[in-house]
What does this fold into?
Amino acid sequence: MEPAVVSDALRQHGYLADDGLATVVALAMALHRPLLLEGEAGVGKTELAKVLAEWTGAELLRLQCY
It folds into this structure.
């Protein structure tokens, strides 16, 4: 899958991804591999997961570790 396709699909669902993120998501999807999202609170990790689940029709399973 091309990063531009991912970027467009995310945009249609209200999520603006930069080229790097779109590329990583495209690679994870093409390779059927999981994607670990980490970073500071409020940067959009959960929102990206929600949008990807909505776009692909997958069930969102949220795991939060402390």
Notes: The CA atoms of residues 36 and 45 lie 9 Å apart. The chain has a mean pLDDT of 94.
